[in-house]
Amino acid sequence: MRTTTGADRAETREELSRTAYDLLVIGGGILGTSVTWMAAQAGLRVAMVDAGDFAGATSSASSKLVHGGLRYLQTGNVRLVAENHRERRALAADIAPHLVKPLTFLVPIYKGGPHGAAKLGAGVFLYSALSVFGDGMGKVITPHQAMARVPALRSAGLRAAAVYGDHQMNDSRVAVMTVRAAVDAGAVVLNHAEVVGLRKTGGTVAGTVTGADLRDRLDGTEFGVSARLVLNATGPWVDHLRRMEDPDAAPSIRLSKGAHLVLRRHEPWKAALTTPIDKYRVSFAIPWEDHLLLGTTDEAYEGDPAAVSATDADIAQILDEAGHAVRDSQLRREDITYAFAGLRVLPGGPGQVAAAKRETVVTRGSGGMLSVAGGKWTTYRHIGKHVLDTLAHLPGQPLGDDLADILPAVPLPGLASPDAVAMRLWTDRDPGARMDPLVARHLATHYGSIAFDLARLIRDEPALGERIHPDGPDIWAQAVYARDSEWAATVDDVVRRRTTLTVRGLDTQDVRARIQELLG
Ligand SMILES: Cc1cc2nc3c(=O)[nH]c(=O)nc-3n(C[C@H](O)[C@H](O)[C@H](O)COP(=O)(O)OP(=O)(O)OC[C@H]3O[C@@H](n4cnc5c(N)ncnc54)[C@H](O)[C@@H]3O)c2cc1C
Fold it and tell me: Which residue among 265, 428, 430, 463 has the highest number of C-beta atoms inside a 10 angstrom radius?
């Protein structure tokens, strides 16, 4: 596989410049990556570029849930929940069982809370029925049973808890594995390459979009890509790109900011909490990467998408709302290891952001560029297929004749049982030289069978088996692998999205300097 060194980036730019593509996808978040993967599977010549890192924006700022969306039952959207459940279960069972893991959720029911036990009990029952009880039956349990699963749960006023099942993931890692799947299927990809203009044939204003002008953000090189069709999958920037196509394009979306916190965890959490804050909003407290993930806020955002961040006010709100159900001892500011924010893309139009439906917006501009935004991480394959289907039947520019049927369930690279991989990583080495079981488990659940490639790196160079920071399970082989096989080109690419150093608060100056050295 091509690496991310300067020479290899130059080679990729050269390939992008000289090839006539069927499809250019602008934006390497999970939506752009999904369409790229599907299009490559269907036999199209497809290129994907991202201004920053793959999944560097919204797609690594989610709540990390692969879920049916219990809240959608509130708005009566039973069909959407059933569809989300189907995708959730397909990801967990067939596509990425190495990366997506089951998680039990409790909805604590307090005296005076916005919903009663009967309503929530019926809600979780219906929720589980919509996934054909594949994760057990939604039910109501006693406060005592709830506290046995989450000892940090507040007990005062607790009447009961409703229980249901969903899944969780490390979104950055699933995204990188999906980019890899797209490349394995034949796509050409480049991160840190910003589209600065669109190429048109037949006139600069009314012409047809047939490519883009780009600037490599790492070394400033300018280059271009030509394609029969261009897809704008730039998430919060979708209208920015639409205005490159047509300066008069009306806004198609609104943005809503959602912030999260990651905190060190002091007690075992055998389940996550979904705590109702009011009629529509919930606060999540989720055991994730040995830490606690708290969120999220939901507030209209009108600034520059690149500037979105978790503010002090967001942090105060998240801790305050988590405090409805979580004891203070688990919510200390000094335990925060990371805070981040992302932008939800909502269909344009009136209404409160918290009540708006999280739907996908697909529009076609005057230059023929298709724009897609919104939707859920959970349904990314479904959205990718839907967009490909739309591209196949575009009036005037059908790609349909050139499309092969794609298989219904192609797994992500590394598909394997994480338990089996962890066991093999541990037993493959002689006693005395064995991999730390925690490291083995970490590699198995973030790489699947690709962890064996990392083990080979360690065999050749044992120092790569050492931890990058003594307090976390990430090892040097991951940083080397990120550089050589996962397109990591900056320190943040490595510490924030290929490993878990940043979320654990372990990306110290020393760690960053050593990784910078490794990247050259
Ligand atoms: C707070 C929050 C929590 C969420 N939680 C969940 C959850 O738990 N489960 C779930 O299923 N979904 C969740 N979602 C939804 C999910 O995260 C999004 O639907 C998904 O990540 C959107 O992906 P995207 O590819 O459209 O956008 P993005 O990931 O934002 O990708 C767009 C990309 O376009 C690139 N780009 C922009 N301009 C240019 C340019 N000029 N040239 C080249 N590239 C460009 C950007 O760099 C960016 O990487 C959540 C969303 C938010 C905001």
Answer: 265
Spell 348-386 as b/e; 16+ CB within 10 A means b. eeeeebbebebebbbbebebbbbbbbbbbbbbbbbbbbb
CA angle 269, 380, 257 (to 5 degrees): 65
Task: Please report, for residues 126, 335, 407, 440, the alpha-carbon distance to residue 497 in angstroms, rounded to integers and kept in the order given.
Answer: 36, 21, 29, 19
What's the pLDDT at 47?
Answer: 98
Residue 205 — pLDDT band, cuts 50, 70, 90? low
- What is the Rg, in whole angstroms, of the alpha carbon atoms belonging to the chain? 23
The Cα 261–Cα 275 span in angstroms is 16
Cis, peptide link before residue 33, omega less than 30° from 0: no
Indicate the burial class of 166 (C-beta count within 10 angstroms; 0-12, 13-18, 19 or more).
buried
**251-260 pLDDT, tens digit each:** 999 999 999 9
Q: What is the helix, strand, coil percentage profile of the chain, to 5?
A: 40, 25, 35
The dihedral region occupied by 402, where left means phi > 0, alpha psi between -120 and 50, and beta the remainder, is alpha
Which of 229, 179, 214 is CA-nearest to residue 387? 229
pLDDT (tens digit per residue) in 277-329: 988 899 999 999 999 999 999 999 999 999 999 999 999 999 999 999 999 99
Q: Which of 213, 377, 493, when mutated, tests ligand 1's pocket best, judged by the most ligand atoms within 8 Å of its CB?
A: 377
Taking the CB of residue 151, how many other CB atoms lie within 10 A of it? 15
DSSP code of 376? -
Give pLDDT tens digits for 112-128.
Answer: 989 999 999 999 999 99
What's the CA gap between 117 and 461, in Å, rounded?
57
For residue 472, give the DSSP letter.
S
Q: Which has more confidence, 427 or 261?
A: 261
Instruction: Select from 182, 48, 53 the least CA-distant residue to 498.
Output: 53
Res 206 pLDDT > 50: yes
Q: What is the pTM (predicted TM-score) of this model? A: 0.96
Sign for the pseudo-dihedral over CA of 59, 63, 66, 68: negative
**Amino acid type, 250:** A
Distance 308 CA to ligand 1 centre (A): 12
In this structure, the residue with its CA closest to atom 10 of ligand 1 is: 377
- The phi and psi torsions of 139 (rounded to 5 degrees) equal -155, 175
**How many Å lie between the centroid of ligand 1 and the Cα of residue 306?**
12
Using CB distances shorter than 6 Å, the residues near ligand 1 are: 26-32, 49-52, 55-59, 61-65, 67, 194-195, 233-237, 258, 296, 342-344, 373, 375-378
Helix (H) or strand (E) run with residue 122 in it: helix 117-129
Q: Which atom of ligand 1 is nearest the CA belonging to 193?
A: 43
